[in-house]
Amino acid sequence: MKKLVFLCLILLMILAGCSKDNDSVAKAGDNKNQKTQTIKIAYNLPKEHATGVYFEVLAEEIDKKTKDTSIHLIPSTFSNGQLYNDTQLPDALATGGVQIGQITTGFLAGGEAKPLQVTDLPLLFNSWESMWAAEDGEFGDIFNTQFEKLGMKLIGWPSYGTVELYGSKPIKVPKDVSGQIMRGFGQGASLMLEELGASPVSMSSQEIYQALEHGAIDGYTTGPSSVIDRSLYEVTKYGTDMTLLSLSFQGATNLTWWESLPEDVQQAIEEASEIAQEQSRKEAKEKDLIYKKQLSEHGIELYTPTESEMELWKEAASNRYKAYVESSGEIGEHLLGLVEKANEQ
Fold first, then answer.
1. Confidence bin at 32 (pLDDT 50/70/90)
2. To the nearest whole percent, how much of the chain has pLDDT over 70?
């Protein structure tokens, strides 16, 4: 009798083990339906830059967060314009050349892009925090609406940092750029330079060094970060320290690709972007002062305008605001109102 009970117990244990094995097979079988998809993420800055931090962290987080979704996305990143530079990326994104990439609004074309050029306006935001508050609110929602009209979906705001003026001669007041050939940064600043008597030219940041070295340009607008990362301090003597622009780029996806994704994958990408955006913003703010200190160490003379000189710069920028409202209509006027609220807060 004892042997019979013992045998029954062994049999029950075996059956229980089989049941657990079947459960494991069933659970494993649930993941067999998961698809994998390789995607391309392209941007125009070095990996170490705050913009690069956004896209590299985004890629890592997308890979991690989609491992258990209906599609596992496997991103490959292409930094520093190795796939497309900043002038090419809008078309590459809109046509599906890449799934995710960096957008610079100054290189967007079409009537729908006109309101988005608000970010090109000189002296727009008065602090990092006001810029971020605008991006995270209705200001950002309007950007996404316009992006979708251009065949893209806005998913985040990679930080760039501040933008200044640099040249072979000191730049203290607006008249100092008169007669200079200057590489422009965005339409707003470029047109302001033109109104001040400069001759702005459009080129990728990767081309500045050679153009300046060979005398094709006298100066340029860009960020302290790019001056350091692209070794432009080797061919630059003077710069400003007035925050001509506080700038973020846009992280966007091809709209057709985005709409083809299941909801759980879209949610994973949005969560990944939030993490990447936070790290990018922190990196940009912390490094801005470091970059400017490094510029001085490399021998670039940085000039901070006085209050009266800053009023001259604001006056020089005022025409750009008027022209912006005229070209962008009610949407543009509303965006400027949202900027004003963010600056007040």
1. low
2. 91
Q: CA dist 283 to 45, 80, 233, 276, Å? A: 14, 18, 21, 11
Pairwise CA distance, residues 204 & 67, whole Å? 36
- Looking at residues 247-268, what average pLDDT do you find? 97
191-222 CB burial, b ≥16 within 10 A, e <16: bbbeebebebbebebebbbebbeeeebbbbbb
Rounded to an integer, what is the distance from CA 73 to the centroid of its chain? 21
Residues 100-110 have a mean pLDDT of: 90
Judged against a pLDDT cut of 70, whether residue 19 lies above it is answered with no
The answer to whether residue 4 scores a pLDDT higher than 50 is no
Indicate if the alpha-carbon torsion angle 333, 339, 340, 345 is positive or negative.
positive
Cα–Cα distances in angstroms (integers) from residue 233 to residues 205, 212, 311, in the given order: 14, 11, 28
**Long-range Cβ contacts of 136-141 (<8 Å, 24+ apart):** 137/338, 137/342, 138/338, 139/335, 139/338, 139/339, 139/342
pLDDT, position 255: 98
pLDDT of 61-93, one tens digit each? Answer: 999 999 999 999 999 999 999 999 988 999 999
How far is 267 from 269, CA to CA, in rounded Å?
5
The pLDDT of residue 185: 78
Q: Is 88 exposed, middle or buried (0-12, 13-18, 19+ CB in 10 A)?
A: middle
Whole-number Å distance between alpha carbons of 313 and 310: 5
